[in-house]
């Protein structure tokens, strides 16, 4: 996972667990793409303070993920849904009654069962 995508996913899932100050600074850095200087000026703290706070937030968010695995579970569920969609599209392209349809339907049922257990 690239770093920016990972940061945004972690923030989306666990950002509310940060303090208001941590959320504002982290959001400015990750979502608003502000420089350390811009954030420091806006928040009235040093660039080093902003840098340290962002690193601390990264560590906090990663700790939450290592304990709760919500992003990981979401990614697995998304992958399962994408496979279901792909199989469904293939099923639409095939004429009914052709060999293999039953197997695809069984696979779709198995995938949806996995998804329901995941959620």
Q: What do you see in this structure?
A:
- The protein has 119 residues and is mainly alpha-helical.
- The protein folds into two domains: 3-68, Arc Repressor Mutant, subunit A; 72-118.
- It is 80% helix and 0% strand.
- The protein contains six helices and no strands.
- The mean pLDDT is 88.
What labels would you give this structure?
single chain; about 120 residues; mainly alpha; Arc Repressor Mutant, subunit A; 2 domains; about 80% helix; about 0% strand; elongated
Give a quick summary of the entry.
The chain has 119 residues and is mainly α. Helix content is 80%, strand content 0%.
Q: Spans of 5+ residues with little confidence (pLDDT < 50)?
A: none
Number of domains: 2
Number of strands: 0
Mean pLDDT metric: 88
CATH fold-level assignment of the largest domain: Arc Repressor Mutant, subunit A
Number of H/I helices: 6
Query: Which CATH architecture of the largest domain is right?
Result: Orthogonal Bundle
